[in-house]
């Protein structure tokens, strides 16, 4: 499905992403981990074409993505929706309108100016909010919601585009452990029930292990690990984070581990 080959992003002399290659054969939930500055966000931004690659190739279902321009690029961006740590909602706008923003790509300027949405889109938005457990919040302003609720609104906005891929850049980094779990559960469910590929940058190891089928570890722009959560031992993690023997997993951990999650993958001992 997705082939990333020798992907590189240069900022001056700095290689933010350096010769990264990986393939995804079927819709998978993938976690990308690595210390701050490793290149995780840059990689996601290139996948989504928010940022242009300096070198290398991205193909999806055989089509080259890195060279798409104009309408074709926008079409790609709606097939791989992106969600962000800071939700990127319009705070003063109501929840439903925020979700309907996910259809902007295919609406006319005039319809957008007058805030005209087809009834079927409004129904779809409410259905998606309902699925995420926040239909009751639909008429409220986005700013009146908790962080976890706002992130679910952002997920709803992404789902409005019916994307094949959801890219999530630190989706739970601003949330408390309870809300982090709700949001990760929602992403996992969307992956399992809809068969969408999810690629999430995660700043904690335990979340990546717990929710993802596959983990990619980045260090200094390079992919230094690509495997299953079971293969991600403490030794491997130490290498990814470039830490010494005093490396403690707790340093990359949230309290999410202490919350119960049925059917959770077992955590691999050191
Ligand atoms: N627009 C830019 N201009 C110059 N350098 C940049 C730019 N964006 C990112 N970088 C650099 O590229 C490297 C990778 O940054 P990136 O944001 O991808 O890291 P990250 O793994 O997402 O880190 P974090 O965990 O802090 O979000 C860093 O050294 C960063 O300073
Ligand atoms: Mg980042």
TrEMBL record:
Ranges for domain ABC transporter: 2-245
Transmembrane among keywords: no
GO cellular component: membrane
Highest rank taxon of the organism: Bacteria
Position of the signal peptide: none
InterPro entries: AAA+_ATPase, ABC_transporter-like_ATP-bd, ABC_transporter-like_CS, ABC_transpr_PhnC, MetN_ABC_transporter-like, P-loop_NTPase
UniProt keyword terms in alphabetical order: ATP-binding, Cell inner membrane, Cell membrane, Membrane, Nucleotide-binding, Translocase, Transport
PANTHER family: AMINO ACID IMPORT ATP-BINDING PROTEIN, PHOSPHONATES IMPORT ATP-BINDING PROTEIN PHNC
Protein name: Phosphonate transport system ATP-binding protein
Lineage: Bacteria, Pseudomonadati, Pseudomonadota, Alphaproteobacteria, Rhodobacterales
């Amino acid at each position: 499905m997705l082939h990333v080959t020798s992907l590189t992003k240069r900022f001056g002399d700095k290689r933010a992403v350096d010769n990264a290659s990986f393939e995804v054969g079927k819709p998978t939930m993938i976690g990308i981990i690595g210390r701050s500055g490793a290149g995780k966000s840059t990689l996601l931004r290139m996948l989504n074409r928010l940022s242009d690659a300096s070198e290398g190739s991205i193909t999806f279902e055989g089509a080259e993505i890195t060279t798409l321009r104009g309408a074709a690029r926008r079409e790609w961006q709606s097939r791989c929706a992106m969600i962000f740590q800071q939700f990127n909602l319009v705070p003063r706008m109501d929840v439903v309108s925020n979700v309907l923003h996910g259809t902007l790509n295919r609406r006319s300027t005039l319809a957008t100016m007058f805030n005209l949405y087809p009834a079927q889109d409004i129904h779809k938005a409410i259905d998606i909010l309902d699925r995420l457990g926040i239909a009751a919040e639909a008429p409220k302003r986005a700013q009146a919601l908790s962080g976890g609720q706002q992130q679910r609104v952002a997920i709803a906005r992404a789902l409005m585009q019916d994307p094949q891929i959801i890219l999530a850049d630190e989706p739970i980094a601003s949330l408390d452990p309870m809300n982090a779990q709700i949001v990760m559960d929602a992403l996992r469910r969307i992956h399992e029930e809809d068969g969408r590929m999810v690629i999430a940058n995660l700043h904690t190891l335990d979340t990546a292990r717990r929710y993802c089928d596959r983990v990619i570890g980045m260090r200094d722009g390079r992919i230094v690990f690509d495997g299953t959560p079971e293969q991600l031992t403490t030794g491997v993690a130490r290498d990814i984070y470039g830490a010494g023997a005093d490396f403690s997993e707790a340093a990359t951990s949230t309290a999410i581990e202490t919350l119960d999650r049925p059917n959770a993958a077992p955590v691999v001992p050191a």
